[in-house]
Specification:
The radius of gyration is 19 Å and the shape is globular. The N and C termini lie close together (8 Å). It has two domains: 116 residues, Ribulose 1,5 Bisphosphate Carboxylase/Oxygenase, CATH 3.30.190.20; 88 residues, Rossmann fold (3-Layer(aba) Sandwich). It has eight helices and ten strands. Strands 8-1-9-10 form a four-stranded antiparallel β-sheet, covered by helices on one side. The protein has a four-stranded parallel β-sheet with strand order 4-3-5-6, with helices on one face. Strands 2-7 form a two-stranded antiparallel ribbon.
Length: 218
């Protein structure tokens, strides 16, 4: 697999042009789809299904939503760092006791962080709901640099293959430059290469939310 950043940027520019429909009343995002050859990637085997977080070089727009669990200094620092919601220890059981609230919480946020002392409660009341979605929070001590952590999550996506040999992931927004989006795609392809999957790639497609797919030239 060999894709130059220039060819990737050209595909992004083409996707932008083809997806530029004035009838669309919202700002579109950019997705990349990496497709693998079916005969070479047997997704019935767990080791062939990629499922991992990846930090991109450029912040996504709108950025992924982060929810924090904690009290006191941790809660204050999480809010200052940009977490969209901070849940206290006392509220964890209340949310956990309501099935609808548990599901709404898991669906509303992309990533979760937590103070170390909240983890037993999270495991007891929310573990099944968050864990089944791959969203169990990472625990951090009160002295952790939550600004850096939240900022990193604003650049983070999850690479996940399900029942077919492909994955697609958000890599940009029309407010971002073609090169910024291309650099994010390069990071995705470098991840694929690091996992030993690069030689099994069939093709790579780029598209805006409502636009047609554009294949990246090798």
């Amino acid at each position: 697999m060999s894709y130059s950043v220039d060819n990737i940027e050209a595909a992004v520019a083409e996707a932008r042009a083809k997806g530029n429909d004035r009838k669309i009343k919202f700002e579109q995002s950019f997705d990349v789809a990496v497709n693998f050859r079916k005969k070479e990637v047997d997704v019935t085997k767990p080791e062939n299904r990629l499922n991992q977080e990846l930090v991109l070089p450029n912040t996504l727009i709108p950025h992924p939503k982060v929810c924090a669990f904690g009290d006191g200094e941790f809660a204050e620092k999480a809010a200052e760092a940009g977490a969209e919601r901070v849940i206290s220890k006392d509220d964890i059981p209340k949310i956990g006791d309501e099935k609808k609230d548990r599901k709404t919480l898991a669906k509303s946020y992309d990533f979760f962080i937590a103070a170390v002392d909240t983890m037993p409660l999270i495991g007891r009341y929310l573990g099944q709901t968050l864990g089944s979605r791959g969203k169990m929070p990472r625990p951090f001590p009160p002295q952790a640099d939550l600004s850096a952590i939240v900022s990193q999550y604003h650049r983070t996506v999850r690479i996940k293959m399900r029942n077919t040999p492909t994955f697609h992931v958000k890599v940009g927004h029309i407010k971002m430059s073609d090169r910024e989006i291309a650099d994010n795609i390069v990071a995705v392809l470098n991840f694929v290469e690091s996992k030993g999957f690069s030689e099994r790639v069939s093709n790579i497609m780029v598209k805006t939310t409502m636009g047609p797919v554009v294949e990246v030239s090798a």
